[in-house]
Amino acid sequence: MAETPPKIKIGAFEVAFPADGFWRNDGGCMFGVVPRDLWKHTHPADEHNRIRLNLTCPLIMKGTDAILVDTGIGNRLSAVERNIFDHGDGWLPENLRALGMEPGDVTHLIVSHLHFDHCGGIVRRRDSGALEAAFPRARIFVQKGELEIAADPRNERLRAAYRPAAEILAPVRSRLEAIDGDTTIVPGVRAVVTGGHTRDHQAVIVSDAGECFMHLADIVPTRSHIRGPWNQAYDLDVLRTMEQKAHYLGLAVEDRWWLSFAHDDTVFAATVKNDRGRIVLADTIPVSERLFE
């Protein structure tokens, strides 16, 4: 049994931090124009220039609602892809069970965007090779524009980014709910469109009793990306990413929001503060290696 993922309270909500486990991706892709000499100290690269990342999938709970945000990579990768990204079958099902939940207990699934490392775990590959819904009861919320671009990417870059989406979404078509713009999923939980990373990228905000939590997904994927110019090479509109990052980090500093990081391998979530003009981490919830044993 995996170690139990940590939790925080946001008013009457409980937010847990299950994850799909560690993986590796090219450091240059994750930090764009930032020189390796700057990011290598906090995110050391291996001999293939890959850095270790995490796949954090916040679980928002209140009453009978269990709302999962993103799903990680899952177990659908080919042998070649597993070698490239250093990821196996994924730990999300085990992390949910450590919380006393089964995949069938998830009632809602909010997908930030349809890149493979955020939506791959929507399905599970059976021993026969067939793919089936990983969360058979969940309503799946994706931005309408994100679904449209994934179905008809207009250039080579988009085709590469969304290539796995058709296979991933095919088994769950009947459970998909296309939303258009900022949407309340249940009272107190909102999906908000940020753009930036993809045109219709969305984040999730939980607010109750004056407290707030936000999962910024790939707008601030690691603790290092809280710096304004530190952004991914994958961002389609880096200026939009920077604008949204500055806006929400400003709110987080002012009102002491909790923020979670989609890909940081050492910190699940943190509050932030302004330290002489720089936004830095304050309280943190660390990632435990024992979650993936």
Number of helices: 9
Broad CATH class: Alpha Beta
What summary fits the major beta sheet? 7 strands, mixed
Which series of helices and strands comes N to C?
Answer: EEEHHEEEHHEHEEEHHHEEEEEHEEE
Number of strands: 18
* Beta-strand percentage range: 25-35%
What's the domain count? 1
> Helicity range of the residues?
10-25%
- What's the mean pLDDT score? 97
Q: Give the spatial strand order of the biggest sheet.
A: 1-2-5-6-7-10-11
Structural class comes to alpha+beta
CATH architecture annotation: 4-Layer Sandwich
The low-confidence parts are: none
Write the CATH fold name. Answer: Metallo-beta-lactamase, Chain A
Shape: globular
**Rg to the nearest angstrom?**
18 Å
Q: N-to-C terminal Cα separation, in Å?
A: 8 Å
CATH level-four homologous superfamily name: Ribonuclease Z/Hydroxyacylglutathione hydrolase-like
